[in-house]
Amino acid sequence: MHDPGAEDWPEIWARQQRGLLALAYRILGSWADAEDAVAEAAARVASLSAPQRAAVRSWPAYFTQVVTRRAIDVLRSAAHRRETYPGPWLPEPIAAEDLPEDAAARRDIASIGMLHLMEQLRPEDRAAYVLRHALDLPYPQIAEVLGTSPANARQMVSRAGRRLDVGRPPRTDRARVGAALTALVDAVAHGDVERTISLLSDDVTLWADGGGVVQAARNPLFGPERVARFLVGIAEASRAEGREMTAEPAVVNGEGAVIVTLRGRRKLLHVEVGDGGIRAVRMIANPEKLGRILRPEHRAPTIDTNYPQ
């Protein structure tokens, strides 16, 4: 049956656009790529002929389908770029207000850790997982969006879930993460390697994303001693240049993080906390990925880390 509101599709698009951006972002892990995907989807919708528009039964469902399929195409083309990316590729962090309320409420699906973990999924499986767990779409609708059968859609979501369960970030309250970050910044700023080690779990991993623009570790670092010495080493190098380390609390992707300034450059420090301490450290230093969270309206008070030695 024809949707009686089909002629008002621009208004429906305008109301849904923010949610579509959030959908594309969770599939892609890059806000810039999500904006491109949504813009290209909008151009496609605008180019529909009158008969094609008349055949659309539900504009919201159609918009979800077009944006999802475009995001999958972008993810496929981005796969090669990320394989040849200089060093680890980490998701682009965004401010909490960039996500609609429903997406912010499901912050585990849009967390830095989950977006990073989802990089291991096939594009179609990643899209299916997001449609199911972020939008609560039933399997028949996921199948329609992806052009497959409901049984296959269910299998795709299940397959993605099994892969994600292996390294899924633990659910940790923001206060505990904040305390861990404060202690880590304090220990690193003091140049205290042993105390930094004590805050890290035995299986801790650090990823540093400089994008070839900013100097960073080109490979993940494993183990508390290597991670601690890397972090303290950066702080000591900064101090040797006469530039003390500073830190600002931040909320990105609905979770706590810290923006640190080291050697004159600002970097986002994100951690995951497990039973044994900090189990994952992600340092995003590529300036191309920090633009959205370093806007003036997102600035937070500075934490004093200029401690007496």
Explain this structure to me?
- By secondary structure, the chain is α+β, with helices and mostly antiparallel strands.
- 50% of the residues lie in helices and 15% in strands.
- The chain is built from 12 helices and 6 strands.
- A 6-stranded mixed sheet has the order 2-1-6-5-4-3.
- A hairpin with a 2-residue loop joins strand 5 and strand 6.
- The longest helix has 25 residues.
- The protein is elongated.
- 42% of the residues are buried.
- This is Sigma-70 family RNA polymerase sigma factor.
- It comes from Brachybacterium phenoliresistens.
- GO terms for molecular function: DNA binding; sigma factor activity.
Key words describing this protein structure:
309 residues; alpha+beta; Nuclear Transport Factor 2, Chain: A; 6-stranded mixed sheet; 50% helix; disordered N terminus; disordered C terminus
Q: End-to-end distance, in Å? A: 74 Å
Rough outline: elongated
Low-confidence stretches are: 1-6, 297-309
Q: Quick one: CATH class of the domain at 174-298?
A: Alpha Beta
Q: Give the neighbour order of strands across the main sheet.
A: 2-1-6-5-4-3
Task: Tell me how many strands there are.
Answer: 6
Query: Structural class, judged by helices and strands?
Result: alpha+beta
CATH topology of the domain at 174-298: Nuclear Transport Factor 2, Chain: A
The succession of helices and strands, N to C, reads HHHHHHHHHHHEEHEEEE
- Beta-strand residue fraction: 5-15%
Helix content: 40-55%
Q: Largest sheet at a glance?
A: 6 strands, mixed
**Mean of all residue-level pLDDT scores:** 87
Family: Belongs to the sigma-70 factor family. ECF subfamily.
GO molecular function, one term: DNA binding
Subunit structure: Interacts transiently with the RNA polymerase catalytic core formed by RpoA, RpoB, RpoC and RpoZ (2 alpha, 1 beta, 1 beta' and 1 omega subunit) to form the RNA polymerase holoenzyme that can initiate transcription.
Domain RNA polymerase sigma factor 70 region 4 type: 115-163
